[in-house]
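Hi Y.,

Following your request, here is the sequence exactly as I used it, all 205 residues.
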Amino acid sequence: MARVRLSVQERREELLRAAVEQIEARGVAAVRIADVASTLGVSNALVLYHFSTKEKLVAAAFAYAAEDDLAQLSKLLGRRTTALRRLRSAVRWYAPTGQAKGWRLWIEGWAAALREPALQEVTRDLDRRWKAAIAEVIAEGVAAGEFRCPDPMGAALRLTALLDGLAVQLTSYPGALSRARAQEWVDEALARELGLAEVSSAGHA
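Below is the corresponding structure, written out as tokens. Let me know if you'd prefer a different format.
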């Protein structure tokens, strides 16, 4: 059966989805242009027409994969409720015990970014956007008198560092740490950063 003719944007998105799947399955180092092409039944030349090198394809695939999670983060942080409720919802969602997708993909990306400047630029930008969004809501909560935090950006950095580290433990070393304990640590860390009196894993989302 003949393939449906796709627009340039539709074709790029199809290639990026296939690239994400192949990266998750094979890892950044092992994935090839040919793997992505064969998944869709297209030529290597077509993939290279849209992404001139494997490095550019991988970097674009990571950016593409992150957009859904960043959109969900914006949705959670933009709700019409208190800053504290928004932060708790966002942090619990993003944590490796939550519903955010692609932790294995991101761990692969962090490792590959050490050697690939294009990918490093993409992952750094995505990381900056996540931290800035969290810091902004912390600052809103401080201004509203909901909690205390003298350094919102520092708090955002410490929180994301904890979340990223827990993701590595839970993804790379199954059984090394229980999901319940990881969630408890996340809740406690957020409470400490915001100067809250109650430090409880049963906090209110």
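Residues 117-143 form the longest helix (27 residues).

Thanks again,
Q.
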